[in-house]
């Protein structure tokens, strides 16, 4: 990101995090949609049915959260974290997300305190994590996906095979960031970590790259007509990023502001 883009994005994240835990405009509500508090809405490979909607559901999730950020700072866009080229500093984490302080104050991209309801439910489910997000990158021999692995994915002709393999790479990044005892390793709490959004924007970018190489995948009408709860959007409405008002700049390091 440029300094100006980083400033706008952190201002938007600060603003959305400032809302109360029960305010539907706030960060706690948006992060909670992915996991706790119940119900857990995110689409992952917990079943074959859910796995089919991993990419459309998360694209809708990013889209509507970005709209919430734009209510704070018009025109702001999600940055994407290219984890195939990790930073030589900060154990591989992006500089903007690794600094505790930013501009003399707390950095909204570093960590977030999780609401009490989500934490109570997490403890009942056996997740003994602290109420403030934390990361332990690269523990236990975990590694980040490589450019070669992404290139192999992009060569897949079948959308559902591509999606499944991309979800596996996505999971490896969650584990690499969170380590043993970090929130990104626990799906019910992962979206509270601000780096979650940069990671999933990278996943969305890879899907967009695949779409450019494979412009005519086949889907059934039933698949395309499936509603992506809790969002007022169907799978069909996620198929074109340009129709949603954004795109990714080739060779850049941040999402291009849509509009």
Helices and strands, with pairings:
Blueprint: H1 3-17, H2 27-34, H3 48-51, H4 54-72, H5 95-98, E1 101-102, E2 105-106, H6 116-124, H7 147-154, H8 159-178, H9 195-213, H10 221-224, E3 247-248, E4 255-256
Helix pairs in contact: 1-4, 4-9, 8-9
Written overview of the protein:
Strand 1 (about 100) and strand 2 form a beta hairpin. This protein starts with a helix and ends with a strand. It is mainly alpha-helical. The radius of gyration is 17 Å and the shape is globular. It has helices spanning about 5-15, 25-35, 50, 55-70, 95-100, 115-125, 145-155, 160-180, 195-215, 220-225; strands at about 100, 105, 245-250, 255. Mean pLDDT is about 95; it is low at about 250-259. Helix 8 (about 160-180) packs antiparallel against helix 9 (about 195-215). The strands form two sheets. Strands 1-2 form a two-stranded antiparallel sheet. It has a two-stranded antiparallel ribbon with strand order 3-4.
Mean pLDDT: 93
Radius of gyration: 17 Å
Shape estimate? globular
- How many strands in all? 4
Tally of individual helices: 10
**Strand portion:** under 5%
Residue share in helices? 40-55%
Topology as a string of helices (H) and strands (E): HHHHHEEHHHHHEE
Main sheet strand line-up: 1-2
Task: Give start-end ranges of low-pLDDT stretches.
Answer: 251-259
Q: Quickly give the structural class.
A: mainly alpha
Largest sheet: 2 strands, antiparallel
Q: What's the N-to-C terminus distance? A: 18 Å
Summary?
By secondary structure, this protein is mainly α. It has helices at residues 3-17, 27-34, 48-51, 54-72, 95-98, 116-124, 147-154, 159-178, 195-213, 221-224, and strands at 101-102, 105-106, 247-248, 255-256.
């Amino acid at each position: 990101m440029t300094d100006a883009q980083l400033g706008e994005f952190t201002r938007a994240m600060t603003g959305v995090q400032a809302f109360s835990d029960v305010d539907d405009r706030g960060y706690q509500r948006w992060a909670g949609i992915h996991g706790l508090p119940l119900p857990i809405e995110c689409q992952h490979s917990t079943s074959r049915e859910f796995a089919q909607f991993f990419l459309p559901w998360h694209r809708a999730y990013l889209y509507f959260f970005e709209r919430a950020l734009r209510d704070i700072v018009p025109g702001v866009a999600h940055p994407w974290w290219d984890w195939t080229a990790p930073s030589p500093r900060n154990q591989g984490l992006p500089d903007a997300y690794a600094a505790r302080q930013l501009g003399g104050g707390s950095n909204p991209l570093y960590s977030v305190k999780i609401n009490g309801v989500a934490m109570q439910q997490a403890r009942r489910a056996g997740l003994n994590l602290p109420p403030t997000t934390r990361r332990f990158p690269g523990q236990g021999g975990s590694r980040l996906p490589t450019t070669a692995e992404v290139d192999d994915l992009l060569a897949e002709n079948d959308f559902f095979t591509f999606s499944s393999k991309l979800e596996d790479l996505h999971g490896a990044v969650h584990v690499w960031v969170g380590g043993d005892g970090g929130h990104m390793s626990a799906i019910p709490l992962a979206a509270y970590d601000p780096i979650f959004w940069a990671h999933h924007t990278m996943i969305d970018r890879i899907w967009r790259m695949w779409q450019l190489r494979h412009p005519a995948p086949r889907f059934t009408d039933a698949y395309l007509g499936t509603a992506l709860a809790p969002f007022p959007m169907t799978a069909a409405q996620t198929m074109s990023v340009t129709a949603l008002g954004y795109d990714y700049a080739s060779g850049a390091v941040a999402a291009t502001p849509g509009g």
